[in-house]
Amino acid sequence: MATVIGVRFKKAGKVYYFDPSGIWPRPGDCVIVETARGVEFGEVVTGSRSVNDQQIVTPLKKVVRMATEEDIRRAENNERREKEAFTVCQEKILKHKLDMKLVSVEITFDNSKIIFYFTANGRVDFRELVKDLAGVFKIRIELRQIGVRDEAKMLGGLGACGRTICCGAFLGDFQPVSIKMAKEQNLSLNPAKISGQCGRLMCCLNYEQENYEQVHKRLPRVGKDIVTPDGVGVITEINVIKERVRVRIRQDDDSFDVKEYDIDEVRRPGPGDAAAVRETPRPQERRPRRAQAAEEAEAKGEEETEDRKRRYPHQKAPKNLSTDQFFEKLKENGGVTPVSGTREHRRRRGGRGRGEGPAQEGEGTKKEE
User: Which of 42, 254, 272, 305 is the 20 to 30 Å CA partner of 279?
Assistant: First the structure.
């Protein structure tokens, strides 16, 4: 066990533990502490208390001293300089035409470094920007790319509930949120209704998730059997907030009625409980078989093909004769070169056939002998 105090450096920022080292400040006091990046000015949010060694990061840093009036004025002066640096950096970004959005500026308490926080869709080459900023401020420059959730935390704003967004008011760390939580809480899956200013799922979905999980463990899912004081029925709806459940039960006149019960009045069915009587499903119209649908589609396709052929008729291509067929035609015509397969076809193509002229006829007669 170690005795520590909790210090926060930003509004709604993460709480860090420090060794009080003989100084016992109260919550709300400002202190000067030693951190990994130098001396910092912070506010005490939790008084001295004992925590497990697993919850602290070793080695534990110490509190240097209580903040004086000069330290407070210095911190206020740094805030004014941060606003000026924000304006200068925006002008430099426009000058270099960089695809990035400046979110916030932070100046360390000892004025040794300026940190610029920005968002961008991808990687940004800001080497020239760093050179220009270093020439203006004459101190070390650091640019950090952050995510959309960190951007919303720094900028703040109002949520769908009308209050300040949780990450900008009191949340120190971001907890994982999944779409499964929205489904279990019966919320609308419309992204506009379950997303926060950052465009991600709202952090408040995680607040009641533990209660929903406990209630769902005690009850079966919707559509399953459940035992009620009036008999065995089927669950139609579960209201976790009111801790009530709606059940459809069969009556004596073979009708079905829906009743509401408290969660403590119902239980899961056991081995000796009878199964619930369910409503007879309504008959549905039989859809056409796949074979019939395929035949209809094939017949429709043939009609379209025939119609296309009628609209766009094609001329029949001339038949080319092989060597044997050429000599057979030559014998049948009495030594005259067949026209249909050679000369006429070449004439249509715009060229001169080899069988044209009397010399070709002589060759044909000679080959016939």
Answer: 272
Distance between CA atoms of residues 236 and 245, nearest Å: 8
Condensed to tens digits (0 to 9), the pLDDT of residues 208-255 reads 899 899 888 888 888 889 999 988 999 999 988 888 999 999 888 888
User: Bigger pLDDT: 8 or 354?
Assistant: 8
Are 137 and 145 within 8 A, CB to CB?
A: no
Q: Which two tokens stand for residue 224?
A: 């399953």
- The region that residue 176 occupies, defined by phi over 0 for left and psi between -120 and 50 for alpha, beta otherwise, is beta
- Radius of gyration in angstroms for the set of CA atoms belonging to the chain, rounded to a whole number: 43
Confidence (pLDDT) at 81:
92
Which pLDDT score, from 0 to 100, does residue 361 have? 43
What is the average pLDDT score of the chain? 81
Q: Which residues have C-beta within 8 Å of that of residue 86, sequence separation ≥ 6?
A: 102, 104, 105
Q: Is the dihedral of CA 268, 272, 277, 283 positive or negative?
A: positive
Helix (H, G, I), strand (E, B) or coil at 302: helix
**What 8-state DSSP symbol labels residue 201?**
B
Write out the DSSP string of 99-167.
S-EEEEEEE-TTSSEEEEEEE-SS----HHHHHHHHHHH-SEEEEEE--HHHHHHHH--B-TTSSBPHH
Question: Could you tell me the strand order of the sheet in which 244-250 lies?
Answer: 225-228, 231-239, 244-250, 256-262
- Tens digit of each residue's pLDDT (9 = 90 or more) over 264-274: 899 888 888 88
Q: How many CA atoms lie less than 13 Å away from 72 in the CB half-sphere? A: 7
Q: What whole-number distance in Å separates Cα of residue 226 and Cα of residue 232? A: 6
Residue 161 has a pLDDT of 87
3-state class (DSSP) for residue 356 = coil
User: Rounded to whole angstroms, how far apart are CA atoms 155 and 9?
Assistant: 16
Nearest to 39 by CA among 17, 64, 58: 64
- Kindly report the pTM of this predicted structure: 0.62
By three-state DSSP, how is residue 95 classified? helix
Q: Token pair of 82, please?
A: 């941060």
